[in-house]
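Researcher: For the annotation table, I need structure tokens for 5-methyltetrahydropteroyltriglutamate--homocysteine methyltransferase. Please keep the output clean. Sequence:
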Amino acid sequence: MTTLHFSGFPRVGAFRELKFAQEKYWRKEAGEQELLDVAKGLREKNWKHQAAAAADFVAVADFTFYDHILDLQVATGAIPARFGFDSQNLTLEQYFQLARGNKDQFAIEMTKWFDTNYHYLVPEFHADTEFKANAAHYVQQLQEAKALGLNAKPTIVGPLTFLWVGKEKGQAAFNRLDLLPKLLPVYVDILTALAEAGAEWIQIDEPALAVDLPQEWLDAYETAYAALSQADAKILLSTYFGSVAAHAGRLKNLPVDGIHIDLVRAPEQLDAFVDYGKVLSAGVIDGRNIWRANLEQVLAVLEPLKAKLGERLWISSSCSLLHTPYDLSVEEKLKADKPDLYSWLAFTLQKTDELRVLKTALNQGREAVAADLAASRAAAGSRAASTEIHRADVAERLADLPADADRRKSPFAERIKAQQAWLNLPALPTTTIGSFPQTTEIRQARAAFKKGELSAADYEAAMKKEIALVVEEQEKLDIDVLVHGEAERNDMVEYFGELLSGFAFTQYGWVQSYGSRCVKPPIIFGDVSRPNAMTVAWSTYAQSLTKRPMKGMLTGPVTILQWSFVRNDIPRATVCKQIALALNDEVLDLEKAGIKVIQIDEPAIREGLPLKRADWDAYLAWASEAFRLSSTGCEDSTQIHTHMCYSEFNDILPAIAAMDADVITIETSRSDMELLTAFGDFKYPNDIGPGVYDIHSPRVPTEAEIEHLLRKAAEVVPVERLWVNPDCGLKTRGWKETVEQLQAMMNVTRKLRQEWAN
């Protein structure tokens, strides 16, 4: 019989129940027990859904109150020593302080999990880091599932990936791989605790195998898994996000009991593993996108594999279903408005059912699920024949672009003179990244407008009132280049997708970005164009309220692409360039309306990199071209900004420079300006605004902290090219802390302007 197992499920609940319970707890409106009860209920629902899909193993240890890598830091005793917490007796309040910071310590740095849109908290490793096992969180989940009568498989990230995704900290230079001998006994203790609690199988995730690991890291797998095999449990070594075929020989010789491979991202790697003599888990349902699988095509792969492997064949999703929305069946509006599109989709619960169908077909024959296979076949045929997807005018516009369509009229050295002539900004010009607090009043007005309870005129008046407040506060703070605050925007991608053709939206399609932050990605199902202006009216209204320059705010083409669920029937590069041309229409309309500073945010450029370096150049070429296409045709005097966050830039700086933005703002405060060093070493040619405080924490930075960061920045970037700004947008913050944070930023800026002018 073929075994069906799960690697992970969405944590936040079908309706973001965990998010609301977390935030209620953080506001001290609920006690710890209420939060614990909500979490337990969500775990049980997840397990019951998996069991209903005939899972032989439900996933445990995947649930977290904030981040699974933070949980692993706790489980291994590797929480940052600077907090002064005891990992063996960590309270829930202290756990959240690690993630969110406190009055004494900034939060653990956050970055993207490989090439997904999920953020994890980066482990801080020191040469003298000591590890100590604390498996209580994992064991508790295992015991809860067993109490429900379920067969459970704990899933934890493996030791080499854990070290790989961390950072070396401290004064002394060292290689964090050198910590492996100290870390392995702690992993053995964790696995032993799980085995003693009844785990027959334990899944150990090593997605780092899908990147270009140095040879010494690859060689360490033999040592690592020889040690882990001491635990009295069977180990399923899980890889995903790319091909590991190059390491097949090494992996097949490891002392593990099974291997999981991602056959969605890398179907070609199957040939390298078909002769594996142990359990082979085939990840055949996409854990990262929302398109319904063609189950007959999947079975065409699995049936020969079943004939060869017999009971050694396991099936699962390609990776954890964490990255997909919870349940398509609640999307009644989408079903009514776009029934064909609805029939092409599968969210987490639908994917569990697809796996049930596959398991049944493999074990009982296709006739046992004939109706399910017919429905899958009909959906695939409907999508292939749809006339909603392709538009000749969009294709022709892209095909007819001249060779130099993506180039500005003059080089930066000439453009910046034209921009400075009219901007007339002081040294260390100040700005913000775009958004201001999304207050309860804003959210209530937007919700009422969407429900038809508020007229369009009343909604516009409400938003204009919020914009006026934002402009007034920025003028009081004496910020140089203002923003309108984005009160009208629910999300930096969803807002634009709602106004572009080729996009569709869900009501409840939330996925976790980090902690309690959830996003509702648009679905790009067809060719993209811009029917009407999207931001011009809001920006021109804001400009009418002030004589200071107003910055128009757009989300860039690569970020819209990366933060959406993207159609998989044409190349992603083509989709991205379609979006770029749609945005270019908006940029030129802003320019005509007198908005001559325009920010095109691209926080997702780095995360879009393929995991294999051999594929980087092609991606960076079309990503940079798409960004340039979005501002093509602008006058030299129009200043184009971009913003990037959560990224290591060292290895892609030539591509960032090739984007040719006049000003780039970047997230740097959590890394203590470490990220800026690469720009200095590279001699980045254009203006830079390194973030001087962390907006993801409610704490107000001291002026000394901001001054420290600005002085460090000035050691790397010439003062005449240095801007001052927060790390990111301010929508998640409250007004009081926002004003206090920005006031501290401005106080330091004025001090250093005076000092450096002399």
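Researcher: And a one-line annotation?
Model: The two ends are 79 Å apart (CA to CA).
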